[in-house]
Amino acid sequence: MPRATHLSDSERAQIDAFKTAGWSNRRIAARLGRSFNCINTFVNNPDHYETNKKSGAPKKLTDRDTRSIIRLASNSMKSCNDIKNELKLDVSKSTVWRTLDSNQNIVRAKLMSAPMLTDAHKANRLQFARNNMATDWDKIIFSDEKKFNLDGPDGFNSYWHDLKKDPLHFSKRNFGGGRLMVWGAFSSAGTVDLAFLSFRMNSTDYQDVMTAKLIPYLRRFHRRQLTYQQDNASIHASRSTLDWFKSKKIKVMDWPARSPDLNPMENVWAELVRVVYGQGKQYQTVSELQTAIVDAWKNLKKPYLQKLLNSMPNRLFSIISTGGKPTKY
Question: Where is each Tc1-like transposase DDE domain found (predicted)?
Answer without folding.
Answer: 140-289
